[in-house]
Design brief:
Length: about 375
């Protein structure tokens, strides 16, 4: 009997999970049963990360303890910085992050997992190593913004929130409270999204009992592709090409005519507007109003592009996804476009580590099959007779 081949495993359940849920028809995303809109409005990245890792909203004491441990682990060893300084200045932030996160297993030998440990020791190990990796992610991305431009990085601070510390390390100034809250919300919105390509990469790698640094590094590599996390860079470049709101219709019509990708539009899971994009758009508008200013040209252009796409593609269920607006926010915060996807990776590390932990609770190594379409019974011919 010939097995059916499903490209991209579309719609094929690969695991059972209690971490997040998507209703693509209604535009709903929840983490551990909590609607993402509520978390983005009321929670913090630290609290959301702990929710993803443990399954429940923490007590105040537990959250404060977790946040303190993340802050204590922000510093990196000097030889990690030396490794980063050896990379070419042209190295893309995602390539840097994948390389350096993989190297953490060498600099922190405790990340090499001993699966002969007792169960209670395993849980403690998972907690400790997850916190160390998560704490380092923000520091590494912020450090690279300076190192790749030839400057010494700004040391992290323990007295700031996760988002606030990233902004501080970016420019050395106390973070603007509004920008800090916006970045915090962005991290929450990007922290988890069921079994996407990078998360699937993480659980497949984790199923081999590879060390968690390798698990996260593999996931970073998957996220770096333009069909996954790198789309937010493409969105910004596209909006710059459009130039002004009045150019949106002609630009989009030409791309559709040439069968070119419209970056930031459409999602495999959603048949309506990505709920994360809805939240981000509202946050941007609220921020602009609070500052008493006008919308930026990029944001105005993005709204115009969305309106045209809704008219031309809405009947196909193609609407903005989270990448459509996140890049605009990051640019306004002062991040270089090349860093956009690495900010995504900082947040998504919480989800990857949660899935890694879940995978280990009932582990079975992944070994899918294939539909063979090659030849049979071919005879070897010596080289001099071919």
């Amino acid at each position: 009997m010939t097995m059916a081949y499903v490209p991209g495993l579309a719609g094929i359940p690969a695991t059972e999970s209690a971490i997040s849920y998507i209703d693509g028809q209604e535009g709903i995303l929840s983490y551990r049963g909590y609607n993402i809109a509520e978390l983005a409005e009321h929670s913090s990245f630290e609290e959301t990360a702990l929710l993803l890792l443990t399954g429940d909203l923490p007590s105040e004491d537990a959250l404060n303890s977790f946040s303190s441990r993340l802050a204590d682990n922000r510093r990196v060893k000097y030889n990690i910085r030396e490794l980063m300084m050896c990379l070419p200045a042209t190295t893309h932030p995602m390539n840097m992050l994948q390389t350096v996160v993989a190297s953490l297993a060498s600099f922190y030998p405790s990340t090499d997992y001993n699966f002969k440990l007792k169960d209670e020791d395993v849980n403690g190990y998972i907690k400790d190593v997850s916190e160390k990796i998560l704490a380092h992610m923000g520091t590494l991305v912020a450090m690279w913004e300076h190192l790749r431009n030839g400057y010494d990085p700004i040391p992290p601070r323990k007295d700031l929130s996760y988002a606030g510390n990233i902004l501080y390390m970016l420019n050395g100034n106390d973070p603007d409270p509004d920008w800090e809250r916006l970045l915090d919300a962005c991290l929450i919105l990007h922290a988890e999204h069921t079994i996407n390509a990078s998360t699937f990469t993480a659980i497949v790698t984790g199923s081999t009992l590879a060390n968690p640094c390798a698990v996260v590094s593999a996931a970073i590599g998957s996220l770096s592709g333009p069909l996954h996390g790198a789309a937010n860079e493409k969105v910004l470049a596209m909006l710059e090409e459009v130039g002004r709101p009045e150019n949106a219709r002609h630009y989009i019509e030409q791309r559709l005519l040439n069968k070119e990708v419209i970056w930031g539009m459409g999602h495999r899971e959603y048949k309506t507007k990505d709920p994360r994009a809805v939240i981000l758009q509202k946050l941007i508008e609220k921020h602009v109003i609070s500052k008493g200013g006008k919308l930026s040209r990029l944001f105005e252009t993005a709204i115009a592009v969305e309106d045209v796409c809704k008219e031309l593609l809405g009947h196909k269920g193609v609407y903005p996804n989270v990448d459509f607006y996140s890049g605009i926010l990051y640019k306004e915060m002062g991040f270089h476009p090349a860093s956009f996807t690495s900010i995504f990776a900082i947040a998504r590390a919480a989800g990857w580590l949660a899935h890694w932990r879940e995978q280990l609770t009932n582990n079975k190594i992944y070994r899918p099959t294939q539909v063979y379409v090659g030849d049979f019974d071919r005879q070897y011919v010596p080289c001099n007779q071919r």
